[in-house]
Amino acid sequence: MKHEAGFTLLELLVAMTLLAFLSVGLMAGLRTGANIWQKAQDKNLDTNAMRVAQKTLADNLGRAYPKLVVVSPEESHIDFDGTKDSMTFLSTAASGTGHIMRDTLTAQSNGKELVLAISATPELGTGGAPIWSKPLLRHLAAIEFSYFGAAGEEKQPAWHETWRNQHALPHLIRVRVVLAGAGTTPWPEMLIEPHIAADADCIYDALTKFCQGRQ
Question: Do the domain assignments include residue 175?
Fold first, then answer.
């Protein structure tokens, strides 16, 4: 009588053990690949967000508008207020429609990290409420604005931590950012030059609100 060919119990146990090891290795490889893919996606998102933030800062600060604020016949200054971690300024519309917006940049802390937020309000809007406000850049460890120009009665331009109640826009605005977390893409230092110069020699006419000649 012939016996049918088959596997012994020991052979089945060895095969099942090898299959289990292969399954564990396959799952570990898939998990590692998924983690690498997710990290690459997160880095791409952070890089894209950085590029958008850099372009927004360069565009809006480059279009800063030096509106003259007349306090009295003897006192006036440009509508621009800058500190180490915030800025408020007027900017012309990118679309060329001629309207002017008041942009505000602020570094806000959520307890763990900083967020650079931007908001915009129409210059002639009522109530002062921004028409839009959004985070411009997240996951920051530090941010610092500084301003290059001749402040007050200075004869030579220099870097300043604040720029307030000045007769002209700063020549340059420097933006330094440190991103939070190890292995993040470094933020290059930005130097932005406002393109619209103030008419410092303007003889202001409070009635017409225009320059009437030059000094």
Answer: yes
